[in-house]
Write a structure and sequence with these properties.
235 residues; mainly beta; 4-stranded antiparallel β-sheet; elongated
């Protein structure tokens, strides 16, 4: 399903999902149905269509740009040491058109229901998309239209043992790659104390044959002030 299509050739059927474009005189009609949701839009130009995973914070509407991954089992990191683990993250799928080098997102949907939570104190904390993940020591097998794989490199810069039970990210900096079998992202957590760490993303694929997703925030030309997030309300 993921890939690049000509608008006139766009036709996807996958489980309960139906996507197609039909030409009428000098415009195209884009249709998408999934369960009880339906989208129809008129497009007055032929264009390339990118269907790929996007930053998972757009549904049911744009509430936040933070992603909170809760660990089902906490991880203990020794003083001044490093560890590498694998997590999962939720998938949202974007449909983005391109003409003359300009991108426009026309649709976002997901096979999952979105949940949100508060990270931090009611005053000063942040609302974040909530996701709960197992912690894996090797690359897990997941359904690539529902879950992505995140490689997380953890560096404990402190002189204390640190227990980590969550990771919170600013997805403005999220880089997502995909192939037919997997969706992935690579991130880092740098621990400064038992309560404070910063997180960020790397621009690298998990496998050599992966393609880079069009970033929704780039397509929307939203100015990005920082791609790093400081977790100051606990790990």
């Amino acid at each position: 399903m993921y890939g690049i299509y000509k608008l006139e050739d766009l036709s996807i059927e996958f489980q309960e999902l139906r996507i197609k474009a039909e030409k009428y005189n000098d415009y195209y009609c884009y249709f998408r149905t999934f369960r009880d949701s339906k989208v129809e839009k008129l497009i007055f130009s032929d264009a390339e269509v990118y269907v790929n995973p996007v930053e998972p914070v757009n549904l049911p509407k744009n509430i936040t740009n933070y992603l909170y991954i809760g660990f089902r089992k906490p991880v203990l990191i020794a003083p001044v040491s490093k560890a590498e683990i694998y997590l999962t993250f939720p998938i949202e799928i974007g449909v983005i058109i391109k003409k003359n080098g300009e991108f426009e997102d026309i649709d976002v949907f997901s096979f999952l229901n979105a949940k949100y939570t508060l990270y931090g104190e009611p005053k000063g904390g942040v609302i974040a998309r909530y996701w709960e993940s197992e912690v894996f020591g090797k690359i897990p097998e997941v359904e690539p239209f529902k879950e992505g794989i995140m490689k997380l490199r953890i560096s404990n810069l402190s002189n204390s043992w640190c227990e980590v039970s969550k990771a919170v990210f600013d997805v403005y900096g999220m880089k997502i790659y995909y192939n037919k079998n997997a969706v992935s992202s690579v991130a880092e957590m740098r621990i400064h104390s038992r309560r404070v760490a910063d997180t960020s993303f790397f621009d690298e694929p998990l496998f050599g044959d992966m393609k880079k997703s069009i970033e929704l925030y780039s397509a929307r030309t939203i100015p990005i002030l920082s791609t790093k997030f400081t977790m100051e309300w606990g790990l």
